[in-house]
Design goal:
By secondary structure, the chain is mostly helical. The chain is built from six helices and no strands. The relative contact order is 0.09.
Amino acid sequence: MLPLYIVLMGVFPSILWLMLRRPNMTLAASALLYVMVRQFGWNFPAYPGGVWYFNPIAWQLLFTFGAWFALGGSAQAMPFIRSRTALLLGTAYLLFALVMTMAARFDELRSLIPRWRRGVWSLRKRLSTKVSTCCAVAKSRSVSLA
C-alpha cells in the first residue's frame, strides 16, 4: 500500500495544478483514464514478476475525486447528495450488496442468484469504494456545518 501512496503523491502536484485550472475537466479525464485502465488492463509491472496489487493508474481516480470535492465539487454535488434520489439509490445498493454477500456465504441463497451475478459481483466491488467515500465526505460536511 505504501508504494501506491508514494506514486500517487508524486503525481498529485500535476493533478492539483490541472484541478485548480479546470476542475470538472480534470475529474472527467481522470474518470476516462480509470475506464481505460479497467478496459485494457493497464498496470505497472512488479518485481520479480506480475503486476501491482493496488493499481495506481486506477486509484488516481480516488485522489482526483478527493481533490475535486475539496476544491468546490462538494458544493456542486451537495444537492444530489442530500436528495431523495441519492437516498433511494444508496438504500437499493445496500440491499443489493446484502443479498450478494449473503449469497456468497450461504449455499442455499447462492442457488437463487443467476449465473450473470459474477459480472454484477465485480461491479459491486468496484463501486463499494466510491460509494463509501462519497458517504463519508457528505457526512463529514454535514457535521461540520451543524
